[in-house]
Amino acid sequence: MTLDNRSTSQRRNLTDEALIQEVLESFSHAESPRFQAIMQALIRHLHDFLREVNLTECEWHQAITFLTNTGQISTEKRQEFILLSDTLGASMQVIGMNNKKADGATEATVFGPFYVKDSPHYQNGDDIANGAPGDPCFVEGSVCALDGSPIPGALIEIWQADEDGLYDVQKPSLSAAAARGQLLTDAEGRFYFRTVSPEPYPIPSDGPVGDLLRAARRSPMRPAHIHFRIQAAGYETVTTHVFKAGDPYIDSDAVFGVKDSLIAQFHRVEHGHAPDGTRLSEPFWTMQYDFVLMPSATHER
Ligand SMILES: [Fe+2]
What we know:
Blueprint: H1 16-26, H2 33-52, H3 57-73, H4 80-87, H5 90-98, E1 136-145, E2 155-160, E3 180-184, E4 190-196, E5 201-202, H6 208-215, E6 221-222, E7 225-231, E8 238-244, E9 263-264, E10 266-269, E11 272-273, E12 279-280, E13 284-293
Parallel strand pairs: 1-13, 8-9
Antiparallel strand pairs: 1-4, 2-3, 2-7, 5-6, 7-8, 10-13, 11-12
């Protein structure tokens, strides 16, 4: 790659407007037209923003400090930039633009900061809670195509918060995954597993994004949900949640991710025979949800 420092004008004594044009021009020799278009649009909007609010030097320094802190607190398990994207609605905007679904297909929602690759493998009927605290919850459903035909062998990844409102990755004392796992649909496209009932939870608020929410007097709460990511050969991967109907935060999700089609009834049973045939003397929950996948436009991802 060669660097190209050509400029169509002298880069000195720039007025405010000439500065923007010069910065735009500095991206005009980019190798990738897409990169050029994205960066030039970013520059235009950034400078418009700076000028619209007449940003002070102190405020710009605050912004740089905020982004620095966001980076410094981030790790593989603490994804502060994802939280920032989620709480600014950017995640849902990008998801909305890139996941136009046909009627009947399962809608996508935020990926969130708590996904972990290579979660434990389970069989249908297993308890994926693996010790996570909470009321038992028996989940079952199916994965099918738009025409209703079942999709056997679909890979379903599941992750959720427990009754403490925490994901396993937020509990440093845990050495194994809990309330997290993956399994395959059976020959009829069905899946079923035991877990714990999800609870509403606050997104992590002990970092810069928490400061942002407090400054805005915004709630950090998310309504109770279970995350699902479903992949099958020949179909579009869908990353989504199933939300608990009646949750007090269902209409005030801190990350704007709720859709009507993703709300399901979680039925509470005081005691008795669970769907897996066991008899429980404690309260438990059941939830049923059917996922519908879009055909892949190209090939499996
Ligand atoms: Fe979540």
